[in-house]
Amino acid sequence: MQAVTPITQANGVQVIFASLTGDIMLDALIGAMFAIISYSSLAAVLLTATLTAAGIISFPVALCLVIGANLGSGLLAMLNNSAANAAARRVALGSLLFKLIGSLVILPFVHPLANLMDELPLPKSELVIYFHVFYNLVRCLAMVPFAELMARFL
Asked: Which residues form a coiled coil (predicted)?
């Protein structure tokens, strides 16, 4: 995987990769940081898939990074709407809260989920992408019943 060589050789990045020890909260926070730095959760997810394909990070770490990248996109929305009107800030806050709740619900199940997904006959890099899609789909569908409650709360 020559595409990731420049990234993996940078000193600061090596420090970050060394900190990816399997601590689900730390790994998720680093995923959020990737999304904020790249200004895109999708870019962070694609980087994660590439690093997984290259064997630089483990599959459970990759899942945590994806969850964190989704949370990072919520933080980006909050930052982007900080100067907007109150309604826009409430929408961004609601999105962030839904992403935070989804993250807190799924993170304890990362290792069992990774073990189940390991059984699928697909490359780990593809599984990272599929996890990103299905995690967001399930999270959104699970939160629909709470949208009105969230609207009243905000």
From this structure: none
Distance, in Å, from the CA atom of 106 to the CA atom of 17, rounded to the nearest integer, reads 22
Name all contacts of 72-75 with Cβ < 8 Å and 24+ positions apart.
72/31, 72/32, 72/33, 72/34, 72/35, 72/36, 72/41, 72/44, 73/35, 73/40, 73/41, 73/99, 74/98, 74/99, 74/100, 75/32, 75/35, 75/36
Span 101-143, pLDDT tens digits: 999 999 999 999 999 999 999 999 999 999 999 999 998 898 8
- Give the residue numbers spanning the domain of 140: 2-153
Distance (Å, rounded) from C-alpha 27 to C-alpha 49? Answer: 15
Structure token pair of residue 48: 């994660």
Q: How far apart are CA 125 and CA 92, in angstroms?
A: 30
**How many domains are there within the chain?**
1
Question: What tokens does 140 get?
Answer: 């959104």
Token pair of 115 as six digits: 């073990």
